[in-house]
# Entry
Amino acid sequence: MVYIVLGVLYESYIHPLTILSGLPSACLGALLTLYLFKGELNIYSFVGLIILVGIVKKNAIMQIDFALAAERNGATSSEEAIYQGCVIRFRPIMMTTAAAILGSIPVALGWGAGGEARRPLGLTVIGGLLVSQIMTLYLTPVVYTYMAKVTNRRQQRRGLIVPQPEVAPGFSD
# Structure
C-alpha cells in the first residue's frame, strides 16, 4: 500500500523503490535488537515496526524529495542532486532520529506501570533506527543514483532524451 501511495505521489515506479530501500535494514535492526535483549515478538513490537517504517520512510523522503526538486530545476546531475540532498537534509534527519530514540528509551527500559509489556516496542524502535540510520545515509544515495541511471537508459532507448557526453569534473567547454 505504501508503494502505491508513493508511486502516485512521485508519478514514478522507480522512486518509491528508492525510498523503501532502507526498510529491510530497519527491520533487521529491530529484530536483531529484540533477539539480543531477549524481547518478544508481540503486538507491541509490531506497533514498533510500524512506527519504524514511518520514520525511516520519512527520512528517505526528505533526501529524495530534495534531490528530485534539484534535478528537475535544472543544471544538476542526479549524483550532485542526491549529494546536496544528503548534505542539506542531514541535520533534520538526525534530529528526527535522535528525538525518536530518546523518546523510546524509557519505554525500552520498561519504566512505569506495565512497562515490561511495552518494552519490545521501545527496543524495536531504538534498534531499528540505529541500524537503519547508518544504512540509509549510505544506501539511499546509492540506490537513487543507480535508479536514475536506469531511468536515463530507458528514456534514451525510447528516444525521449538525447544522451549527453560524459565530462570530467572541473572541465567544461
